[in-house]
Amino acid sequence: MPVRDATRADVDEICSLIEEHAAYEDKHDLRLDRAGMTEHLFGAAPKAWVLIAYPDDDPGAVAGFAFCWSTLSTWEGKPGIWMDDLFVRPAYRRQGLAAELMAALRKRTDGRVEWEMREGNDKATAFYAQLGAVPVTGWVQYRWQL
Questions:
Q1: Model pLDDT for residues 63-76, shown as the tens digit of each residue
Q2: How far, in Å, CA of 12 to CA of 20, rounded?
Q3: Strand partners, 97
């Protein structure tokens, strides 16, 4: 499977993927600090983790990523995964890499794998439906930001 765990050596690529994803989403309010991201991912108390996708014919290339952290559902009583970002660079799309990333996440937990997506993203809606994922209805997302 063309997916691996990110290492500290991947931080620049991870940050570049985050920037490319923000540009793709036409979001210009990104506040990214590479040193901070290094600490959050690979410091003494990591807050998140990343899976890297690469093409079969070039394991050194970084084609995309899934940016995640662990969750724990009180309702289900088991750990799960929150996927904050899933992004594959345009040159590598339609090769099954997003599906490989999602399959790798599914293998890491028998609990929930959850994420958000922007409304109106018909391609993502179709992709997630193909995986068997369903929208969560009846919940309202909140954000408390300083």
A1: 999 999 999 999 99
A2: 12
A3: none
